[in-house]
UniProtKB/TrEMBL annotation:
Spans traversing the lipid bilayer: 51-74
Name of this chain's protein: Alkaline shock response membrane anchor protein AmaP
Species, as recorded: Planotetraspora phitsanulokensis
Record's keyword terms, sorted: Membrane, Transmembrane, Transmembrane helix
Protein's UniProt keywords contain Transmembrane helix: yes
Amino acid sequence: MRAYMGNRIGLGIVGLLMASAGVGVLAARADHLGTRIVDLSFFVNNAWARPPAAAAAILIALLVTRWLAVALGWGRCGSRTGSGTAMLGVAMKGIEGIGRIQVRLVRDKRMRVLVSLLPRADLHEVIGRLDGDAIPRVRGAVDREDIPTLVRLHVRRR
């Protein structure tokens, strides 16, 4: 199983557990309508505690919102193209030290290519292959011969 699938399955299980716990609390609350769930007398008696509690609640809400935006992939531009990635892999075949490759099309206006290199990779050979043969082959694979392309090379330290 891939790591992201395990992450999604784990998050789904935690979400189901939290939802069922919430339903259980609401069902228990329906039986005892007169009782209080949380005693807020501390905040009523101590005015100094209200601003830190509000700041903590706002901070937690912002952190959760940021996590949700990252988890859902908002802000990522374009869609992955499997045929472009496969063609880039074929074009880069034989070069040692390539870690990961990725091709994205951004609204039929441009193409983004990410090549992650291991420290032992020959950078001059990679750039020469990208300039000479690889990018035109990828453009042909996605049926856009004249699309502007941004290539990002990431060289890992370890």
